[in-house]
Each structure stands twice: as structure tokens, then as C-alpha cells.
């Protein structure tokens, strides 16, 4: 026989879970209780603005007090307060949110500043307290009450002699949590979570001594001032039109006191189809981008949530610094981390678009300044182009390529710049680049003699950006300057004539194999110009990229073990020294010249070291 019924949740089972596992960090209890106090205060302000409360608001500062001897923490507000009926409703019914009901009741007016959502924040108090008291008096003309609970599912409500409107929550801290019965510790927690909350929060006082009077009559006077956690109104809540560059820079210093000044910033402000405000800064980024991550702080109605914004910010934008504040970002029940949904994707797309629009505007309106900052901007742009296709589509118009002479070009500008000399037989533009100008100078100079332009691609991200550029840009191929001999970097139908016969070429290869005595080397002869090096060592572009990928991924299980290092040894058949080697009849002298020519090639790459370098020096002295 079928039956129907309602599932019952036993509070004796769920209450310990709420107390012990609702929040990953126990210090969040203070954020939740202060947020509730801010909530109650803002509700009263809202009612006053609507004419439903006609009394004096007075000083609305929230007080956080510590009593070390009694081992208590008290949070006091002068907000709405509660009647006995409301205490029964909001405190005793787990997960019944007063904020939710308030918003529903006044849905036709702006209640966007109300923080509470799940109605569970109050119970975070029991993570650190054995007993909790709630002493409250409503703004309505009703008696004050006191609610007491020892962490079990039983409670007691009694009359209270409280005369002022508002609520005081007293936490009788347990032994395991006595670290929190410390004023400095509480200041530290609130400075992290609550320094931008919209209602003043006081934790103790600050004392200092000042001189009063002049000369012999001067005396020390103690000045006592309340210690307010949240002195400044958050910059992101203000109208950008009213702010100056100095305002933005000062706010950045407040957030990141040890950082250099940012390059520029973006003020976010949208109210449809979701609500989002914030300020994102472009910092000066060094080669190591890792320390620059996790510098964006996420807030929900000015309450700090997390600095882990993986869900909402594309990876490349997590290099930025700043704050994002949105009540529309879905949070888990403890407001400790994000939950992914359609709104998160919309917000992510919006932020990406705003960043690309800002960069595009800077490029178009102040290209000179944009180019000066390209060293840092370029890391953002290239990273974004590799990881976000939508950003790529916009960024390709303001991504710059810098050559070794310091000139910068957009993609289309650079293709036009090299059109007369660096287009291969298949019609592809060949972008030659150097990753280390010092060790690759020999190859750079050879390319310059041919009239080629060489790009500078020497940042940590460029290894990956090179492949990405080839993949996404049509009719563009990229070759590192030392990936082949200068004649072969750009494939054309033109070939240099060799001065060697076929037999001389074969003989030359045999001489080099014997002299170098290295089975892994397979030298080849090529007709180059007479003034180039007698021997060049190159690594094919494809092989080098595969080896770099292998190194990044931990070797890929010896995938390249069968390749002899991938180096190509090319003998310049038209070199004068090579001609001498062929003509030399003494085998020892011939071998010495071969080794010297080979070592010159290694030296030009900065790869001649240790015993090989010593042998080269001694051999040079003998030759001289």
C-alpha cells in the first residue's frame, strides 16, 4: 500500500554539523556576527528612510569588546533589535533568514544592501563558544529579552533590563578557542573580512600621548580615540567621475602597501543583467607571474569572501590586482567560496570584455604610453590570447611584436614591414625571432646581412606564444633565428652555388666524421656565403619546440630518447677555412682545423664550456 509523508530533519543531528563543519575557518564567526549586526543596522536605516521608523538613529557604530578574565567576546549594534516573538522566529528556527523575509516584505524598494541570506551565520558562534547569550531590544515599543543557549538544542528566554535599542551577542569562549579572546587578534580578523563594511565597527581604543602647553608648563596628555576598523568608504562604491588618479593610487597602496604603482586600472560598474562593482589594477609583472596570482579580493556587499576567484576570473586575468563586489555571485551556504552557475559565466565574460575594451582604448588613444608599458602589458595580452579565444579575437588588434631594435608593430603592421623580404615560396610571412640576443648574436648578424628583421621573444611566456601565433594567425610561420642556416630560414627558389664538386662534398663529410669522432653527428654540406662561419650548429624549429614541451611536462617518458639531441651540423662549403681543410694533407693538422671550426660554432652559441673550452683555447694558441 502506497503512503506519503514529510521528511523530518532532527535538529539534534544537524546542530553539531552546523557548529563544527559549516565553516572551514573558525575565525569566520566574527565576520558572520558583525555582518548580522551591519544587516540589522542597515535595515533600521532603510525603515527610517521609508518613514517607518521616526526615532533618532544616533550613533550606529558597532562595538566589538573583549573581556579576557571572563573569556567573553561581545558584539553590540544599535540596529532593529528583536522582540521575543522575533527571537523565537529567527534564532530558534535554523536557516530561517530574517534578511530574506525583510527583502520579500519590502521587495518594491531598494534592499540591495542587506547582507544576510541563509540564516545560518549566527550559529557560527558555537564553533568558538560553549555558551551564547543574545540580549536584544526591538525598535518597536516592546520589552527587551535575553536568549541563552549552551550549544545544545535547548534554550531559555528571559526578560532583560536592556534599555537601548539593538542587540548584544555575548560569546562565552571555550578552551580550544581562547586565541580569540584577544583584542589584537579580533582586529586582525575584522581587518581581513570587514574593513569595507558600510557601518563603523569599533574594536577597543587607541591611546597616544601628546604635549599640551609650552615651555616649562608643557605636560603629557593621553589622547584616547576609538579604534575603527573600517574608516574609509570603499572606492569601488563611488562614482568614477568623482575620482582622481590619486584616489585610485591611494586605494591601491591601501590594498597592497608593498607593491609598485600599477600601470593603470579599470573601474567596474554594472547593474544589469547582474550587479557588479569593483576596481581591477594592472600591476607591473615580472618574469615570474606566479606571485602575482590570487591578488583579487571577492566581496559580497562589502563583506570579504575570498581571494580565490578561479571560478569567476579567467586564468590570465588572475594576474590582475583589485576587488570585485557582487551580491549576484553564488556562494556556498557559509559564504566561504563560489559555486559555479550561469551568472558566474556572464560575469566572467563581462570582466574579460571590459579588460579588452580598456586595453583597446589605451592602444588607440595613447599608443606611445601603451608601448612604454608593453613589457608588463604584453604578459597579460599574450597569456590571454593563448587561454581565451574571445579575448584573442579582440587582442589581436592591439597585441604588439617588438623587434631587436626596440620598434613595435601590430600583426598587420609587421606583416607589411617584412613583406618585401620575409615571405616564403608558399606566401607565408616568416617571423624570425631571437630568444636570447646575447648567445644568438652570430645568427642575428647573419640575418641582418640578408636584410631580415628579427623579433625579440625572450620572456617566459614567449615559448608558448610562438606556437599559439602560428596556430591562430593565418599565413604566418615563426622560426627562431638559430633554427637553420640563414639561407634556409626563409624557403625560396633561390640557391647559392657551391664551389665544391660532388666528390669533394662527400670527402668533406667523411673528414668531419673522423675528426669529430661522434656517431650522433651527421654533418651536411651547404653552399653559404664565404663570409659566414665555416660550421654552424642549428636545431630544427619543430625539434626544439618538442624538446621544450618535453621538459615542461617532465620528460614525457623518454619520448625523445632516440633523437641525437636534434642538432644539425652544417658545413659551409664556400668557406675559406673549409677549403683549407680539404687541401690539408696532414691528418692531424686536418683534424685540428675541423675541431677548431666545430668549436667556433659551439662558441657562437655559448655552448663551449669546461674541458672543451680549455682545449679550444690551447688549440688557438698553437694555431697562432
UniProtKB/TrEMBL annotation:
- What is the originating organism of this protein? Flammeovirga pectinis
Report the family membership: Belongs to the heat shock protein 90 family.
- The answer to keyword RNA-binding applying to this record is no
Q: Per its record, how is this protein called by name? A: Chaperone protein HtpG
Entry's Gene3D superfamilies? 3.30.230.80, 3.40.50.11260, Heat shock protein 90, C-terminal domain, Histidine kinase-like ATPase, C-terminal domain
Cross-referenced NCBIfam families: PRK05218.1 (NF003555)
User: What superkingdom heads the lineage?
Assistant: Bacteria
Report whether Chaperone shows up as a keyword of the record: yes
Q: Which GO terms describe its molecular function?
A: ATP binding; ATP hydrolysis activity; ATP-dependent protein folding chaperone; unfolded protein binding
Question: InterPro entries annotated for this entry?
Answer: HATPase_C_sf (IPR036890), Heat_shock_protein_90_CS (IPR019805), HSP90_C (IPR037196), Hsp90_fam (IPR001404), Hsp90_N (IPR020575), Ribosomal_Su5_D2-typ_SF (IPR020568)
Alphabetized UniProt keyword annotations? ATP-binding, Chaperone, Cytoplasm, Nucleotide-binding, Stress response
